[in-house]
Amino acid sequence: MIERCIDQLVMLGDPARAQDMRRYHKADRFYLGLSNPQINDLTQSWRSELDAPARVALADALWKTDVYEARLAAAKLLTQARIRPDDGPAWDLIASWTPDFDSWAIADHAAMAGQKRLVADPSRLDQVEKWVASDHMWTRRAAMVSTLPWTKQNHPKPEDLIIRDRVLGWAATLVPDRNWFIQKAIGWWLRELSKHDPDRTRAFIADYGPRMKPFAAKEAMRLLNKS
Questions:
Q1: What is the sign of the dihedral through the CA atoms of 109, 208, 179 and 162?
Q2: What global pTM score does this model have?
């Protein structure tokens, strides 16, 4: 299966686009030059052919190629609300990828796959909480990106509000981190939260906004400042 999937990716490749992507992403790996819609179409086709264990196995094999589009495809294969059985292998694989993150696109696609597995089993947040203290910047960022679903509920349950406050605590811990990608993730999380929970967003900015990078604090309040 992996050989056929790689052949399909290669057939859709665009060498000129691949060169542009390599310059843009600045990560030293092989690029084929596919667009996101092309990868989406392929992964949807593969997913329809495979049961959950086979999807996990294919995602693992794709990731190990270290080809840019193959890693995106690996994440997209596992980005689905329901995986049956969801007894751990898909989440364990996604979590195992974090040390390999070295660009925003790959890290964020994998974190989006992780979002679905966290919503399916919020007890996995105990593992994500450890990412906040990681020495690896992309792992720290993944802690915020993977928990974005808790910014988006219009009518959160009490347990969702507890998680929302828990992640805001992580964001507070990360405020002193001056890395642009970390600050961007904090601003992104708060901006999304502001659509559904403006009071918590304003309270966070009142306490921590002066210690955030100005662009991140501005991003957090962007939608609220328009209202």
A1: negative
A2: 0.94
